[in-house]
Amino acid sequence: MTRMQQTSQANAPTTVRKFALVVSHLLSPIILATVLLLATPWRDASVRFSESVTAALFTTIIPWLILAGAKLRGKVTDMHVTVRHQRHWIYAYTAGLILCGLLVLRLMDAGTRMYLEVLSILLGLAVVAVINMWWKVSVHLAVGTYVILQVAGQLNELMPLVVFFIAVLSWARIRSFQHTATQVCGGVAVGIAIHYAHEWMAAVLL
């Protein structure tokens, strides 16, 4: 074996991990949830763009800015908050901001569809927060699975895309050594459950 081959093999795991981390950053919960909320008017014409912007501000953008400030002050180790015990207060203030967002949407006389999207995210946050008290579940997969299922909707022909997306994100979280396969599967299960909770609420309220 040549020196070049030895160097290539030695660097391969590091290269794979770096690529997995890039995928994790690009498909982070903040980005995916923000895109989902901002794209709601395109998925449902009854939703105003001002509603989706307001929902995104209180649900993802302001919480992210607070998290970025915490990272700069050394309150969290990284922007994905991979240390489980650091997540509790983040979940708490995010839930508070989402509730404030729901109140603002109420004052704006927002449509039921926008309420449902934000309520579903709040429900998902609550479920993950409770699980996180005892076990580290993958928030990436919980949010990612929910978002891709919401985008696919009832279109069965998009199911291969859904499976591919979940597989890629699962690979990224495992190969970046941020989660175990069990934690990833737990996140997928939460995402699926919240999606069907959204469907049930929509059937009742719409």
Return the average pLDDT rounded to an integer: 90
Largest sheet at a glance?
Answer: none
By oligomeric state, this entry counts as single chain
Q: State the helical fraction.
A: over 70%
Order of helices and strands: HHHHHHHHH
- Strand portion, in percent? under 5%
Quickly give the structural class.
mainly alpha
What is the CA–CA distance across the termini?
66 Å
Shape, principal axes of CA atoms:
globular
Overall strand count: 0
Low-confidence stretches: 1-12
Radius of gyration based on Cα positions: 18 Å
Put simply, the count of helices is: 9
Structural commentary:
With 206 residues, the protein is mainly alpha-helical. It has nine helices and no strands. The longest helix has 25 residues, at 181-205. It is globular, with a radius of gyration of 18 Å. The termini are far apart. The model is unreliable at 1-12 (pLDDT under 50).
Which labels suit this protein?
mainly alpha, 0% strand, globular, disordered N terminus
Give the SSE map:
Layout: H1 3-26, H2 29-38, H3 40-43, H4 49-72, H5 87-107, H6 112-132, H7 139-152, H8 159-175, H9 181-205
Helix pairs in contact: 1-8, 2-4, 2-7, 4-5, 4-6, 5-6, 6-9, 7-8, 7-9, 8-9
Give a brief outline of the structure.
This protein has 206 residues and is mainly alpha-helical. 78% of the residues lie in helices and 0% in strands. The protein has helices spanning 3-26, 29-38, 40-43, 49-72, 87-107, 112-132, 139-152, 159-175, 181-205.
